[in-house]
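Hello again, I could really use a second opinion on something today. I've been puzzling over a protein and I'd love to understand its fold better. I'm sending you its amino acid sequence along with the backbone structure tokens. It would help a lot if you went through both lines with me. I've dropped the whole record in just underneath, so have a look.
***
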Amino acid sequence: MKKILLVIMLVITALFSEVQAQKQIVFEGVTIPRTMKFENKILQLNGAGSRSKMWVEVYIQALYLNQLSQNAKEIINDNVEMSIRIEITSALVSSGKLTRALHAGFEKSAGENLDALKPKMELLKSYLADEIKRGDVFELTYNPADSSVWVVKNSELKGKVPGFDFKKVFFGIWLGDKPVDEELKNSLLGI
């Protein structure tokens, strides 16, 4: 009888562990959920990668989509829910450094539309102005219902940046023709 109970307990433990493993993955020491919920919709993890500067990993980034894709142009141009999740992994990251890096990537992505979109970039930067520390998690999620990118830090909504035009340039920072990091782009696309 004891052996049967032991076997049953081992089977239940193995099943529970398998279910937990399916809900999240660990990437370079950071636990990344396989799905995220946004406005009662489930987004799936499309890919994840790390961003490094001067041999220091500064953040782990994940891309969530409602339908998995490896087509960067389609993702950028899709008017559907999608999200970028960034978890800060280095104490060297500050609000100023993060916003400067985003601004540089935004300039590359915007091209000739930069002047028209600059006020929206400044609005985004204002939502990221609070102190940033290791372990902070940002979710930057596009919502087609109000055509805006929702900026969430550690589960708290900081604000919304309006415009499908902004969304396309914003996601283009990592997925565009001139991404901030080609290797990260490929990781986000699951390539």
Q: What stands out?
A: Residues 24-188 form a domain with the Chalcone isomerase fold (CATH 3.50.70.10). The chain has a mean pLDDT of 84. The chain has one domain: 24-188.
